Amino acid sequence: SAVISQKPSRDICQRGTSLTIQCQVDSQVTMMFWYRQQPGQSLTLIATANQGSEATYESGFVIDKFPISRPNLTFSTLTVSNMSPEDSSIYLCSVGRLTPYNEQFFGPGTRLTVL
Amino acid sequence: GENVEQHPSTLSVQEGDSAVIKCTYSDSASNYFPWYKQELGKGPQLIIDIRSNVGEKKDQRIAVTLNKTAKHFSLHITETQPEDSAVYFCAASRRSGGYNKLIFGAGTRLAVHP
Question: Exposure of B27 by Cβ count < 10 A (0-12 exposed, 13-18 middle, 19+ buried)?
């Protein structure tokens, strides 16, 4: 499976600021996804990062708050904008295989704390 | 939409015992059921999965069973070891918008005591 890296691995940010998280894959992939994992909770899909077009957001997530870029088939960024303490979470990117079931593999995550 | 329930939320076993985690799903069209293991400070790792046309799958000490009629699936870990301690997530998925979207259960924190 692909090797997925994320930067930064963790950060502590002030309320009202923005943070951009990078996801790099060692091979070209069609499907990339961004998830949020709130403290002690399960994973919730934020959006699908589409190469060459706007991301597809899930209910409850909007582009103004979580803008996503996907400039090529190996890289994507997620920005958490105008942060508040409620945004403190682990943010995970994943890639999906081009198979009938699109098995997903996750990166190591970015641990964000907002003060 | 799909809803996945997972039980128990915590599970404590002695080394060498078996551990069973159960999930139920609501969407009868779901056709793919992966299990992920998340160790502290790491991203979820896919450990085993099962497709809707299969009733059981085994990989060494790990097995998964699926009952489509009852809409539930289970993870079985035999001969547990301390390194099995982690949070385990089940998920269900079906084709939607051109790909299989995962819906996760709430997770089970497994502790294996030496």
Answer: middle
Placement of tokens 């003060």 in the chain: A115
Hey, which residues does B32 pair with through a beta bridge?
A: B51, B93
> Residue B51 is nearest to which of A41, A101, A107, comparing CB atoms?
A101
Contact A108 B44 (CB under 8 A): no
Locus of tokens 């269900």: B92
State what percent of residues in chain A have pLDDT above 70: 100
> What's at B113, amino acid-wise?
H
Name residues of chain A where pLDDT drops below 50.
Answer: none
Compute the distance between CA of residue B19 and CA of residue B26 in angstroms, rounded to an integer.
Answer: 24
Among candidates A96, A105, A109 on the partner chain, residue whose Cβ is nearest the Cβ of B99: A96
For residue range A72-87, what is the model confidence (pLDDT) as tens digits? 999 999 999 999 999 9
